[in-house]
Amino acid sequence: MDGLLHRTKGDKVIWTIVIFLSLVSLLAVYSATGSLAYRLQGGHTEYYLFKQLSVLVMGLLIIYFAHRVNYTIYSRVAQIGFLLSIPLLIYTLAFGSHINDASRWIRLPVINLTFQTSDVAKLAIFMYVSRQLSKRQGNITDFKKGFLPIIVPVGVICMLIMPANMSTALLLGASCMILCFIGRVPVKYLVAMVGAGIVLIVLMFAFASLTGKKGRTETWIKRIEHFRSGDDDKSDLPYQVQQANIAIAGGGVLGKGPGNSTQRNFLPHAYSDYIYATIIEEYGIFGAFLILMAYMLLLLRSISLFRKCPYAFGAFLAVGLSITLVIQALTNMAVNVGLFPVTGVTLPLVSMGGSSVIFTSLAIGIILSVSRNVEELEGKRIEQERIARVVAQQAEIEEF
């Protein structure tokens, strides 16, 4: 154990955030799934607790091994990951498991495990964009040589994700735009791409309306209509939004206490999409604020890595992955408190899940890999300065 801790490097604040969010996840998932486990698992109320614990332990192991890998290796993996993501997403759209009219999951035949291919694609595209930005800093202002090789892969991935999961595609596109802005891509190119995306979405909705609102588009339109009319008619709110509002209102400042949620028995997906509302009910505004600050602190520490990292790829990789995690977290929180239309976005490292926790852990492990490398370089620099001072002092003594 001492050897394992000795070999654990990287930003200690980020490690603390990971442990904190993991503990919150165990408490919240156990509270939110107790009744569900009792009904579905023959009275074994701890079933989902142990299941989440095993996933989180696996996630921590992934973080540890990922952070021990030199982050430059991820640059080589990025292109392979991007190329594999395209057939995976196409296969998911054609043959994936359909849940709520959406094909987001594929099932591995031998171990009977399902995972969202969009999680693989998100991680791969951020590594790929970071790689391209670092390689093209010399001609980043050139539209053909600098911008197109970066934005075309992003557009391809977003278009393949959008039919089944529009919210994830939009968040991924927005995160990539922010990363491109940080990477000195001209604002006029980014504005043009945002405009093109808006036009494409409007045309898609218009086409769906003319053809009878078929497929997932009907669900998206209903969610937007409910969100727009919610302030005028509270009775028209979706059921999960109403129950989330009741949970938040009952939480107050300090909450009802751990395990004392009442809305967990009525709130759909209280353990995943709406786990933040459950946390607010049990831990109040104070607990909600701590969760928010944990993600903000993760972003701040990653921005600090961006400034310290001497190599462009590591800098873009750390800040890019942290941005997508924080944007996902903020979106989930906004949905839970009624500031955003209903989506299927989970709370990273907190919501109950398998593939989402695993790929979130891998992303954090990569961030910590960059942090470990920065620490080692900083340590070498300090050691070199110390040796230089000793040599200088020795020379002065000999001269004297």
Automatic annotation (TrEMBL):
GO terms for molecular function: lipid-linked peptidoglycan transporter activity; peptidoglycan glycosyltransferase activity. It comes from the Bacteria. InterPro entries: FtsW/RodA. GO terms for cellular component: cell division site; plasma membrane. It catalyses: [GlcNAc-(1->4)-Mur2Ac(oyl-L-Ala-gamma-D-Glu-L-Lys-D-Ala-D-Ala)](n)-di-trans,octa-cis-undecaprenyl diphosphate + beta-D-GlcNAc-(1->4)-Mur2Ac(oyl-L-Ala-gamma-D-Glu-L-Lys-D-Ala-D-Ala)-di-trans,octa-cis-undecaprenyl diphosphate = [GlcNAc-(1->4)-Mur2Ac(oyl-L-Ala-gamma-D-Glu-L-Lys-D-Ala-D-Ala)](n+1)-di-trans,octa-cis-undecaprenyl diphosphate + di-trans,octa-cis-undecaprenyl diphosphate + H(+). Keywords: Cell cycle, Cell division, Cell shape, Glycosyltransferase, Membrane, Peptidoglycan synthesis, Transferase, Transmembrane, Transmembrane helix. One of its GO terms (biological process) is peptidoglycan biosynthetic process. The keyword Thylakoid does not apply. Its EC number is 2.4.99.28. It is a multi-pass membrane protein. Its main location: membrane. The chain crosses the membrane at residues 13-36, 48-67, 73-96, 150-182, 189-210, 274-299, 311-330, 350-371. It is found in: Membrane. It is an enzyme of class 2 (transferase). Belongs to the SEDS family. FtsW subfamily. This is Probable peptidoglycan glycosyltransferase FtsW.
